[in-house]
Amino acid sequence: AYDLIDEAEKQEAHLQIGRLLLEAAQPKGPGENLFEIVDHLNQGCTLMDAAAERIELARLNLEAGQKAKQATAYAAALTYLAAGINCLSGTEMWTAHYELAFALHRERAQVEYFNGNFAEAEALVTLVLAQAKTPLEKAEVYHTLIMQQTLVADYEAAMASGLQALALLDFNLPTTDLQA
Questions:
Q1: Nearest 5°: phi and psi at 90?
Q2: 131 in Cβ contact with 101 (< 8 Å)
Q3: DSSP letter string over 57-115?
Q4: CA angle 58-62-65, nearest 5°?
Q5: Residue pLDDT, tens place only, 34-64
C-alpha cells in the first residue's frame, strides 16, 4: 500500500507524522524517539516553508548525528549531518546560524574521516577553517585534520598542521637547531 502512494503524498505524510511526534515529545524533547522523529521530518523537509522549522530540523539532525557517532554508527551519522547542512542551505548559514553551521560541518568532517572519505573530510576541514572565527575553533578543526593525516601515514603534513594549530594558540615550537 505504501508503494502505491504518490511520492508527494508520502513526503506530506512523513512531515505530518514527524511534526506530530515532535509535538508529542514536548516539552522534554525528542529523547528516545529522536531518530524516528528526525527520519520522518527529513523525508518531508522539502515541503517545509518556515525557515525556523528548517533550522530546528538542522538542530535535531545535529543531535541525531552526534548520537549516532557516539554509537559508532558512522554511516547513519553522516546521513543526519548531511541532512542538517541541507536544512541550512539557502539561509545565511555562516552569518545568522554560525554556531549550528560550524558544529554540523565540524562533526561531518569527523564522520567523513571515520567513514574513510578522506578527500571529503579534508574539503570540509578547509571550508570550516575558512569560516571559523576564533583560534580555538580553528585548532579544534586542525585536530581532525591531524588525526586524518596521521591515519594515512602523512606524518610530515600532520606535523605541519600541528605546528599551524599551535601557532594559532601562540605556541611556537622551533623546527631547526634541535638537539638529539
A1: 90, -10
A2: yes
A3: HHHHHHHHHHHHHHTT-HHHHHHHHHHHHHHHTTS-HHHHTHHHHHHHHHHHHHHHHHT
A4: 130
A5: 999 999 999 999 899 888 999 999 999 999 9
pTM for this one? 0.86
Joined grid coordinates for residue 38: 528526525
Q: pLDDT class for 180, splitting at 50, 70, 90?
A: low
**What sign for the dihedral angle of Cα 64, 69, 70, 72?**
positive
- Transcribe 117-155 into DSSP letters: -HHHHHHHHHHHHHH--SHHHHHHHHHHHHHHHHHTT-H
Q: CB burial class (10 A; 0-12, 13-18, 19+) of residue 36? A: middle
